[in-house]
Write a structure and sequence with these properties.
- The protein is α/β, with parallel strands linked by helices.
- Helices cover about 35% and strands about 25% of the residues.
- It has 10 helices and 11 strands.
- The protein has a 6-stranded antiparallel β-barrel. The chain has a 5-stranded parallel β-sheet with strand order 3-2-1-4-5, sandwiched between helices.
- Helix 5 packs across helix 6.
- The radius of gyration is 22 Å and the shape is elongated.
Length: about 325
Amino acid sequence: MPGCVVTIGFFDGVHRGHRLLIDYVRRAAEARALEPLVITFPKHPREVLQTGFHPELLTTCREKMDLLARAGIARRVLMDFSRELALYSARDFMAYLQTRHHAKVLVAGHDHRFGHNRSEGFADYARYGAEMGMEVLHAGAYYHTWPDGTKEEVPVSSSRIRACLHEGDVKRAAAYLGRPYAMQGLVGSGRGIGHTIGFPTANLEMPDAGKLVPTGGVYAVMVGIEGQSYGGMVNIGHHPTFGTDAPRTIEVHIFDFKADIYRRPLQLSFIDRLRSEEKFATVDALVKTLHEDEARARCVLKDWLTDTKKAEALQ
């Protein structure tokens, strides 16, 4: 097996900060004629160590592995995190990487710590590396710069993106991710309310309970169905106009689309939040607002598609 440049982490979201680290790994590997390797975990380590911990994932394991591949990492290893692994010292774990994966170079993220109790830091890793003949490099953090030139003072992180989604700020989340936040699932049966008021919807069933759902409200979305993209708007909530005891649903009205897609896979990409969910005094008031939502969503999506095409043309 050839030697490699390796980095390790959970990489939830594979956001811009992660991709800065991944690009660093790829460049270091290319400069040394080695293979880039990313090691990650199928479950969040805290899910293994803390009873009752329920992660709010930005990406499922499959999504994460696909995004790592798209980032240019051909060799990706899923390592099962265990209580036994958590007891490894940092030096023992580095020795494992050297023996098991032929690691010649270890790249540590700007704030990444590993080893028992995460009690050691980069200076310790560098010292151990010098003792065992492993080069240890430190990648920098990613600070987002907005189109007006303003640079943020806090690095992008998965926790910051989760906070954005909890607030419904999917535009900021997309800026940090480098793409719109997306959810995938199958189309299931709903209450059929949308059909009765002229806004038929597809009810998204989430296959992964750990995936984070943005806060309730109405959003402009792009809808992916079997390789085709459509505009739409989605409501996340409890249908308060029709009663207060309804469970939360994720229902999308797809623009200019009439095919039967029951039990077919569907992906939602969140572009912007239009408003919070509301309880209307009458159904007519709800329908009037939905027409306004649709008009606004179509404008939002048109502008987003124009900006996306401009950005692609500059690459």
